[in-house]
Design brief:
homodimer, about 220 residues, 9 strands, globular
């Protein structure tokens, strides 16, 4: 298990490879060269070879990459070839959307508990899953193995909710709230900060307008 | 307008500064030193000074940063101090959630048109905005100034929809679909690839489990 350290930049590019390989698979493509993949992905072929070498290569000279094999291997590396159980806290609009998204689009990720504090929501069903009261979480986590907690709650509650759930032993958070969470070292957080993304879009749009002379 | 080039990494960190300053503002904090900000943000004070120097500094020796002023300046840099008009295409669960999110949480971003192809949705209202048929988009864009198009549609339609809207002159896309969009050079795309994010979370979780000895 003493893997050589893989750079964060390489890791961050892996999901994108996975997406393109999935697309190729669905089109029935069995093998692909790094230069063909390079054309599709707008990344240099040498970058692709380097990236994939980090994980042991997978390519064969003159043959290219076996799509199925590479897809499976990257899936294993990313840890998504096994089932991940999740709970979601905060079943507002976004929580609703994410629950449906996971149900219909995220193979191997299963939401097994939905929680909220709003009495009007308790007992309602989303994607076949009943919404339970937030206070039930500790009991739920005692009896269920949960890999990931999804937080789609207002930012003012986020840190406290996170602390509560960390105490119950959950080691991974998918954080849609507007804040950065403080967690112990052995807990991981992946943020989807929508407004950050929107601000970056705004910035890059201004930049492009400026370059094309419309903004000066 | 001949700004010095600002590195992508610095630009990517700006929304985060903006978020923390917003938080400080809402708590009534008027000024803050780079070391206090450093403690909050878990970034070194020297990194903070360097980052903000890219945009002309804003700090004063022995005084720190004026929170209001810095907040406003970063807002201007990010281009979010002026109103941005948006349309959203694909009013499923996610489109619904994003529409509500923009309405209630994204100051200065206004959705002025919702579009879908599903006849059952046309004429319905989300956040006070009526859903129109997708085919109305060209006419709509002739008569309305739209800065950003939000795509919350299935991936198989995404490139075609993007091409259609680019033809009508929209220069910025907030892309929630599962694919990367091909666009002309003067068009910008900011992606929210949910599944990429989930895969990274899965990867980092495995990594942490491995380090703590649970996964080996």
């Amino acid at each position: 298990m003493d893997d050589k350290e893989i750079s964060k930049a390489v890791v961050r590019r892996m999901p994108r490879y996975y997406r393109y390989l999935e697309e190729l698979k669905s089109r029935g493509v069995e093998r692909i060269s790094s230069s063909e993949l390079s054309d599709m992905m707008h990344v240099t072929a040498s970058q692709i070879r380097q990236d994939l070498n980090n994980f042991g290569g997978f390519g064969q000279q003159g043959y290219g990459y076996n799509v199925d094999f590479l897809y499976d291997e990257i899936g294993k590396i990313l840890g998504i070839s096994s089932i991940h159980t999740m709970i979601l806290v905060g079943v507002g609009n976004l929580g609703h959307a994410i629950t449906n998204y996971i149900k219909f689009s995220a193979k191997n990720f299963k939401i097994i508990g939905l929680f909220d504090v709003n009495p009007a929501l308790i007992g309602q069903t989303v994607s076949g899953e009943k919404i339970q009261h937030y206070d039930e979480i500790p009991k739920f986590l005692e009896t269920h193995n949960v890999d990931i907690a999804i937080l789609t709650i207002p930012k003012d509650d986020a840190q406290k909710v996170c602390d509560d759930i960390v105490k119950c032993g959950v080691k991974a958070f998918w954080n849609f709230t507007h804040i950065d969470l403080n967690v112990p070292k052995d807990v991981v957080v992946e943020n989807v900060h929508l407004f950050d993304s929107l601000m970056l879009l705004s910035y890059h749009r201004e930049e492009v307008l400026r370059e094309s002379g419309n903004g000066s």
